[in-house]
Amino acid sequence: MAQDEDSKNLPEVQESAEVFLEEYTDRFQDVFFDALRQKSIQNYDRAINLFLEAYAINKTPVLNHELAKTYALDKQWLKAQEAALDALNAEPENYWYLDTLVSIVNAQSSTLDALSGTYPEENKRLQQNLTQVYYKNGAYIKAKEVLATLPENNFKSDLTAKIEVILKKRVANIAQTKVSASVVRNSDPVATLKLNLAQQIQLKNSGLVLLQAENAVETYPMQPFFYYAYGWALQNKGNNYKAIEILETGLDYLFDDIALANKIYQTLADAYTALHNTAKANLYLSKIKPGF
């Protein structure tokens, strides 16, 4: 996938713990690590209180970022958004703070446009980071729109060229799917829709899958495959919080389909990995049954 090939070009992940703790007191470190531990076992209320306690000791944007992620895991979206904005305003050029804010906004089915004026959106490095976030999430049109506002340089020309290649492939894939769908037009509509979505997933067409699967879940709410497709698309678009919610709902309708269960577990593991929750990611990976 194009996003995977270019992941090495993204800013290096700097997680909260090791990068700054040696500068602060033993009390701060104890509270901070306890908060991370509580977060890892999904005791989000306790984790939030501990992060706030650590923040009272040292008001660093690293803690705003941890609070944003923890509020989001607890589905406290407005508080998550506020904390993410605090982190980004403190360090506007930090890629990961922006990435978290975009994920939280996406989870609310909103856009950054709704937050205009609440963060330094004219910062050129921030805008460059935003194109990378959109590209990683498969939001290629949005990435192009932001790229158009940036000055001409190698970064802009290279990323624009990559996006154009992907969009041309997408058009060809849509045409191919229309031909395949016409073959089964007169068959069972659920089977036809499943076939179409399966083809689009194989072609990594997350944008089209997102639109079709969301409608399919509403039309056929008892069909677990449509929850998988919707969750897969959301996860590929970087909306990991909502992907988890949809995929876990799909598990409630799943009976005796090990192959589909494996796909759901893998996508849940991918979503939790993207959120740096390795405990939950490993839990779902352990549920995958080989040979299916």
What would your notes on this structure say?
The protein is mostly helical. The protein folds into three domains: 98 residues, Serine Threonine Protein Phosphatase 5, Tetratricopeptide repeat; 62 residues, no CATH class; 101 residues, Serine Threonine Protein Phosphatase 5, Tetratricopeptide repeat (Alpha Horseshoe), CATH 1.25.40.10. Helices cover 70% and strands 0% of the residues. It has 15 helices and no strands. Helix 10 packs antiparallel against helix 11. The two termini are 23 Å apart.
CATH superfamily of the largest domain: Tetratricopeptide repeat domain
Helix content: 55-70%
- What is the helix/strand order? HHHHHHHHHHHHHHH
- The shape, in one word, is globular
The value of Rg in angstroms is: 20 Å
Proper CATH architecture of the largest domain: Alpha Horseshoe
Task: Characterize the largest beta sheet: strand count, sense, and whether it forms a barrel.
Answer: none
Structural class: mainly alpha
- In round numbers, the mean pLDDT is 86
Detail the poorly predicted runs.
1-5, 12-19
Span between termini: 23 Å
CATH class of the largest domain: Mainly Alpha
| Strand fraction | under 5%
Q: Write down how many β-strands occur, each being a DSSP E stretch of 2 or more residues.
A: 0
Q: What is the count of distinct domains?
A: 3
The CATH topology of the largest domain corresponds to: Serine Threonine Protein Phosphatase 5, Tetratricopeptide repeat
